[in-house]
Amino acid sequence: MSSKYRTVQGDMWDSIAKNCYGSELGMNALMEANHRYIDIVVFPAGIELTVPDYSKPETSNFPPWRR
Q1: Separation CA 64–CA 34 (nearest Å)
Q2: Which helix (H) or strand (E) holds 1?
Q3: pTM of the model
């Protein structure tokens, strides 16, 4: 189930992902779900984005302190 996020002035894809998912790694999921805004780098206030479900991928390529 997805939710919504309303941008504030200065939001960027990575900061929105960090806010919504706790990690910038969710940025691609946000961008795919909101393709019509893909050209925006720094958001103005008031754009409603769809926030799809996302779970951070597990990988063993990261050092232990980063997992």
Answers
A1: 33
A2: none
A3: 0.80
